[in-house]
């Protein structure tokens, strides 16, 4: 059986690829795992996840947490990379918060909830990213 984390990742990618505000900033650069380091930024990648199983009445499921990373890099016009990473994170958060995408064979016990974010500048001084945390409770139908 597919894990709840894998199902949530698939749902997140579908929501982000369907969101015009997100794709206006990154196009198709939405990756299920780490991006190709030679590829261009700005981009979105899915990071670590964890799941905690639960049982509610007769239904079993998992409370699953997933990290989503929004990346931007400084360009020739100045150091606007953190501003762009934050703007991308705002669009990603808006697209996902309270979403319940259709999942064949799965039941949502809660909508996707954005639980926080953390902005980081990479040591190279030209790459910034915002790590967004989301959580959802879901299980097999």
Topology overview:
Blueprint: H1 4-18, H2 20-26, E1 30-31, E2 43-56, E3 59-73, H3 81-96, E4 106-108, E5 113-121, E6 127-140
Parallel strand pairs: 1-2
Antiparallel strand pairs: 2-3, 3-6, 4-6, 5-6
Helix pairs in contact: 2-3
Fold and architecture overview:
It is a single chain. The chain has three helices and six strands; from the N terminus they run ααβββαβββ. The protein is of the alpha+beta class and 141 residues long. The two termini are 12 Å apart.
Return the average pLDDT rounded to an integer.
90
Strand content: 35-45%
C-alpha termini separation: 12 Å
Radius of gyration of CA atoms, rounded to a whole number = 16 Å
- Order of helical and strand elements: HHEEEHEEE
Describe what is shown at a glance.
With 141 residues, the chain is an alpha+beta fold.
């Amino acid at each position: 059986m597919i894990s709840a984390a894998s199902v949530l990742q698939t749902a997140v990618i579908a929501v982000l690829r369907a969101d015009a505000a997100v794709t206006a900033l990154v196009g198709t650069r939405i990756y299920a795992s780490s991006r190709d380091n030679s590829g261009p930024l700005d981009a979105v990648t899915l990071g670590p996840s964890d799941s905690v199983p639960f049982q509610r009445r007769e239904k079993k499921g998992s409370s699953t947490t997933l990290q989503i990373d929004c990346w931007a890099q400084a360009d020739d016009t100045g150091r606007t990379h953190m501003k762009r990473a934050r703007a991308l994170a705002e669009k990603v958060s808006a697209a996902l918060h309270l979403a319940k995408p259709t999942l064949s064979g799965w039941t949502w016990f809660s909508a996707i909830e954005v639980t926080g974010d953390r902005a980081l500048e990479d040591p190279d001084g030209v790459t910034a990213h915002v790590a967004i945390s989301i959580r959802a409770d879901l299980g097999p139908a």
